[in-house]
Automatic annotation (TrEMBL):
A cellular component annotation (GO) from this entry: cell envelope
Coiled coil, from the record: none
Pfam families according to UniProt: SBP_bac_1
Domain of life, source organism: Bacteria
Predominant location: other
Entries under PROSITE patterns matching the protein: TAT
Ranges where the record places region Disordered: 35-57
NCBIfam families recorded: chitin_NgcE
Location(s) in or outside the cell: Cell envelope
Organism of provenance: Kribbella steppae
Entry's family note: Belongs to the bacterial solute-binding protein 1 family.
Gene3D superfamilies xrefs: Periplasmic binding protein-like II
Protein name as annotated: N-acetylglucosamine transport system substrate-binding protein
UniProt KW keywords: Signal, Transport
Amino acid sequence: MTTPDNLSRRLFLQRAAVGTLLATGGSTLLSACASGGSDDSGSGGGGAEQTAENPFGVKSADPLDVVIFKGGYGDDYAKAHEEMYKKKYPETTIKHAGITDITPQLQPRFNGGNPPDVIDNSGASALPASTLATSGQLADLTQLFDAASIDDAGKKVRDSIEPITLEAAQLSGKPLLLNYVLTVYAIWYNKPLFAKNGWEPAKTWQEFLDLCEEIKKTGIAPMAHQGKHPYYIGQVMMDMAVKHGGHDVIKAIDELEPNAWKHESVKAAAEAILEIKGKGYFMQGTEGLDHIQSQTAWNQGKAAFIPSGSWLENEQKPVAPKDFETTAAYTPLLDGSKLPVDCTEIAAGEPFIVPEKAKNKAGGLEYMRIMLSKEAAGKFTELTGSPTVVKGAGEGLKLSPGAASSGALLKSGGDNNWTTYFAAWYSTMDKPIRSVWGELAAARITADEFCTRAQKIADDTAKDPKTVKQTRT
């Protein structure tokens, strides 16, 4: 079961890693490697003939050193990927470590100029990526994204992955991170419950209100949310706002533009949240519950909908009834929306890195290229229930209801799907914005007050001399 600390880690990784992780921050944690560490660095491996099948010139006998964060996804998927690498380079030996304390174990290795060849840099004790980036300790992944795809030699890797991956890779102006896991945000329901009652997820706002009224009459609350973590209900509001006003709405918010939070679409979405609250459609007491409490109540049939990311199904396995089918639904469209209903917010997370001073940097890059094949990505989804950034990797797999439905929503949204970066780029904004989302969901402030308070938080951030303003690509 996920603890609040793990929740913070997961939300940070899914949101912050995607937005140039720690782009404006520094750390003394890796001060030694920021100054270059030992001069006794690795050779980087390689040296074999570079071909479409071996674009980095990996030598088959060179050993490979892999370190994986053994968190919610475990590390069985990595062992499967290593077997694929071993099949291609049978003379190699692979050292595998599945750990949780990334920085304590790897800091000395970076400082000594002997880092692993590839690292899943996740978890509460992840290495400060910005420090590594600014000190030249991370390999540029341009060569990876420009290499031939394993699935199609006529196609580059960059063309076989979701576009968000390339945007999420940027750190210090270069692609240095491979964010491998794709999170799909949605409002979720139990399909058998809906089928039993003849309910269908609503497409328009009025249809949604009508459905909520019908659900309420059965004694079930139409919606629960994770009140102690207002980010969840805030995501619902933002999804409706972006669908209403288009991608420019979130672009302006991410870039700290004046009055971005006062956009008519943001206000309309805030009013929609208040309407849900005002009509009594939120589960009683949900404002005081944490994520596990509210999600468990939802699993128990006390609420019909709940907002979350595509990790929800896996997170709730310990308590969900055997016949419960966690299913993703789109948020409804407000009147006059510019985007279609079947798109949503997505985020790339779980950042992998290749150290610049790795002894087998070429092998680390090739390991990543294997990860980005449909076979490897499909194995990840099969073992974890979570989609990756590899296009089409889930096709033909026997997927759980949550993975299948979130994959369908991802596919239907296509280029209309959206993401956001402000919480990562400007970390001082994150908690204050969450706070005003919580105030809104509890109807302690009006929609106008929400927009005013959120905009003040953004304006104060923009005026702060320490703030380095970022722009969307």
